[in-house]
Design goal:
Layout: E1 4-5, H1 16-22, H2 24-27, H3 38-58, E2 65-68, H4 71-83, E3 90-94, H5 99-110, E4 114-118, H6 128-133, E5 139-143, H7 157-166, E6 170-174, H8 186-189, E7 193-197, E8 208-212, H9 238-276, E9 280-283, E10 293-298, H10 303-312, E11 315-316, E12 318-319, H11 332-336, H12 341-345, E13 347-351, H13 358-378
Parallel strand pairs: 1-11, 3-4, 3-5, 5-6, 6-7
Antiparallel strand pairs: 2-8, 7-8, 9-10, 10-13, 12-13
The structure holds pyridoxal-5'-phosphate.
Pyridoxal-5'-phosphate (PLP) binds near residues 75, 200 and 208.
Amino acid sequence: MRTVYFDHAATTAVDPRVFAEMEPYFVERYGNPSEIHRLGREAREAVDKARAQVAAALGAADKEIVFTSGGTEADNMALSGFLSRLEPGHLIVSAIEHPAVMETARYLMRQNWEVTFAAVDSNGVVDIDAYAAAFRDDTRLVSIMFANNVVGTIEPIRELARIAHEHGAAFHTDAVQAVGAVPIDVADLGVDLLSLSGHKLYGPKGIGALYIKRGTRVAPILHGGGHERRLRSGTENVPGMVGLGAALELAVAELPSQRPRLEALRDRLAQGFRSSIEDTVYLGHPTERLPGNVCISVRFIEGESMVLQLDGKGIAVASGSACASGSLEPSHVILGMGYAAEEAHGSVRLTLGHENTDADVDYFLEVFPPIVARLREMSPLYVKR
Ligand SMILES: *Cc1c(COP(=O)(O)O)cnc(C)c1O
């Protein structure tokens, strides 16, 4: 059975064109970029090209890009690396960040940093007034995600960054879900630090990058041979870098055609879902959301049961709580938006991507209503209207 894959926010398949670019760097062009012989120089050229591709995709300069092992390391570097040079003070993150930011903020609290978790409204958008009021004289950094990985809401990053700068704080955004999905230009956004990850944009796992605006000082969090201009030691993941560069170049080139296509599929899926099933809540912002994200709470049943039933029909989706590795805790994102634990528990997240078609949406809309009806019949909470 072919899998209808609606879980692109968790990871994506490597695009075969990307894989073709990477392949020679495993067995034939395996050189260490630090060496000056031919194999080493070949690898160095590949790394330089990949860095230029990543920089071009963001409107950055090559020197502003540091490769990391993924989004998690880029986020850790942005927060810990930026703040470790300073005397402990105050940091602001949103209440709906990915664990890579959330747990780094908690780690920094143990290093005597004080953290404000900026509240969001019921659509998942940061409350600007409360945010602006949270700044203190010793606020050094803000970290607010570009787009949320659970509900897909896109934050007003340009305005949030402007307010941070007015208060003398630097601004980081975890753009892992957004890069490749919506246009991004670091200069236009006015951010100082931006994280991205290869495997969320049809590139390989285990590679990512941090954009560090020229003049922004960040200390390394990994120490060693001084690779990546002393910012990130460790022999370069050359095939990964080549894959990330190629994937980003393709993502930017194809964004103008993929974005409207995904938005149309998304809207048809959300519309069909809600018109065929009663007692649902469409989570996230109605319009300011990722092109491929549909997140819906289905009252009276558990997200996990829906995930398993759909899996039985060959459809891969996530529950709203899925992002903390198999955890059954209600999502802090959905709770943070003011919903009750029941609504968080009953949520499913469908994230569409490049290989999805209208037929996939049709198939989902055919098999899902009977699944919900069956699960509700078994649910002690359900009262038919
Ligand atoms: C996936 C994800 C990450 C982590 O990236 P990895 O490359 O898997 O470490 C961080 N932030 C967000 C918003 C994500 O969706």
